[in-house]
Amino acid sequence: EIVMTQSPATLSVSPGERATLSCRASESVSSNLAWYQQRPGQAPRLLIYGASTRATGIPARFSGSGSGTVFTLTISSLKSEDFAFYFCQQYNNWPPGTFGRGTKLEI
Amino acid sequence: EVQLLESGGGLVQPGGSLRLSCAASGFTFNSRALGWVRQGPGKGLEWVSTLSQNADATYYGESVEGRFSVSRDISTNIFYLQMNSLRAEDTAVYYCAVMGDFWGTIEGYMDVWGKGTTVTVSS
Predict the structure, then answer these.
(1) Nearest to B16 by CA among B65, B71, B82
(2) Residue B65 β-bridge partners
(3) CA distances in angstroms from B75 to A4, B31, B36, listed in the order given
(4) Which residue in A31, A72, B24, B105 has the fewest CB atoms around it within 10 Å?
(5) Is B46 in CB contact (< 8 Å) with chain A?
(6) Each residue of B63-80: pLDDT tens digit?
(7) Which residues of chain B have a CB within 8 Å of the CB of A43?
(8) How many CA atoms does the CB half-sphere of B98 hold within 13 Å?
(9) What distance in Å separates the CA atoms of residue A27 and residue A50, rounded to the nearest whole number?
(10) Which member of A43, A95, A98 has the closest CB to residue B113?
């Protein structure tokens, strides 16, 4: 099973700043990587798939990059509604398509 | 707008059964694969199962293989997860999701999610 490792576990930033979240795969997943946002008490929401393609309706301040084993989610100019949990998921080896444990983005 | 609404969660004893439902709207029901993902208390996300868009293939996570089954009713646009032989470790919020798609091929990410339904397995 491919293990997805996210870092840091918690990231503290201020509104208006840039946030950079990392996700590493235990083996290559090509570009078959997705990012999700989960606000407290809500369902996850797809942000990025194919490592860098924004899902429908996702603002341009969210961007994804990387391939192989190292991936990054960047949120430029943070807004208050961006403070949430973020999960990465590889689907190159699907099923099962494993998730990382998440990064909590806090103020 | 694609919408998914889960129901059927609740408290069940170990060894018991439960059937979750997911009412879908806003898209052609047999055009996309559908899946279930769960999130245990304080835990991360775990893919549970997927039904192909033609309902001719089913996929299950190792932890639920042989105990859970998925199906759908096209006449009512409802997607089901039948859970048998439930264990304490099945306790989680269960989300229904539309799977990613690339020219009719299932992509293993979850495009649209429902709000979830809570299953608690406890005596």
Answers:
(1) B82
(2) none
(3) 39, 14, 20
(4) B105
(5) yes
(6) 999 999 999 999 999 999
(7) 95, 113-116
(8) 23
(9) 16
(10) A43
